[in-house]
Write a structure and sequence with these properties.
By secondary structure, the chain is an alpha/beta fold. The chain has a single domain, classed as von Willebrand factor, type A domain (Rossmann fold). About 25% of the residues lie in helices and about 30% in strands. The protein is built from eight helices and 18 strands. Strands 1, 2, 3, 6, 7, 14 and 16 form a seven-stranded mixed beta sheet that branches. β8, α3 and β9 form a beta-alpha-beta unit. The longest helix is centred in the C-terminal third of the chain and has 17 residues.
Length: about 375
Amino acid sequence: MIRLVRTVLYIEVCAGLLLLSAAVPRSAAQDEPSHFRVNVVLVQLNVAVTDSKGNYVSGLRPEDFVIKEDNIPERIATFEEGNESARKLSEAAPPGKQDDASAGASAAEPDHPSLDHALAGVTIPGLTGANVFILFDTSNYMYRSFVYAQDAITDFVRSMPDANKIAFYSFSRNLSRAASLTPDRFRVVSGVRSTVAGDDAALYNSLLLTVKDAAPLQGRKAIVVFSNGPDNASSVPPEDVAELAQSTGTIIYIVSTRLAQSEPVSSAAFERMSKATGGKAYFARNWREEKDAFSSIKEDLDHLYTLSYYPQFNPNRGWRAITVKLVGKDSEKYHLRTRDGYSLLQQTQATTETDALFTSSEHK
């Protein structure tokens, strides 16, 4: 009989979705009446903490955070601040007292190994920096501000810490992967400068494919969208993009060159997508505000706290709600921003149909 232990890693600021499967054969003499599949999920959260004036709060410790998933207290497994290396905290006790129902469910489940035992030998690398995908709208909506947009993106690329890897994609009706994920800033800037304005805008199609590229990556991952909007050529809705990004731990930041009042439908969609993933949406009126938006995104990425945990036993196989709070002195004065949950999605369910939506090209 085969007993399968499957590890689903959600790591981000994007946590990605990675399945590691191992099948262990058992002889008939070892057969037991009850065997089933155990899912051990590593969930990564990127958390921004600010004070009442919007300033980032630094120096917090793992014990300052309390995480609950479907109201079940969770134990922090790894912790990092900004671009520091992740610290493994597998032996740390969960914050607060774990409820008896959750502990009882884990203990009573037949053939359920302890989390520490199940994860023995699984290495969680301490990664620094972030994986950042820049998605640039080169549709005919961008004609008037095209050069200014290129300048803003170029300055953003050059300002990023050396530890970060950057990819540059552009889109109109089709997606073009001009520079794959790389630490080489010259290659990325060359990709930016080689773009030309084109056809209609298929933003949500292109964004969904970009999320799928980011999903398997470990560590913080984020997508920075520069778009004049609206989308007039996509076949997928923004809700599908937000769900996949949220479930794979990918942060979405959107810089729009249109005022929210001038395009309320697109603006509302941008706000929903970014908020669901723990990111932000910016609406710039001129090139100076565009540069300010990119500067704000860089600061956000530099100050995120990245926490991960292995969930306690939870029979819920659908949407799981996450709450993150601070404890201790003055904690009530701080504001937290992160994603509020995820879905247990299989990679085969990650809207594979979108691969056939249009042909994407990659320029080396």
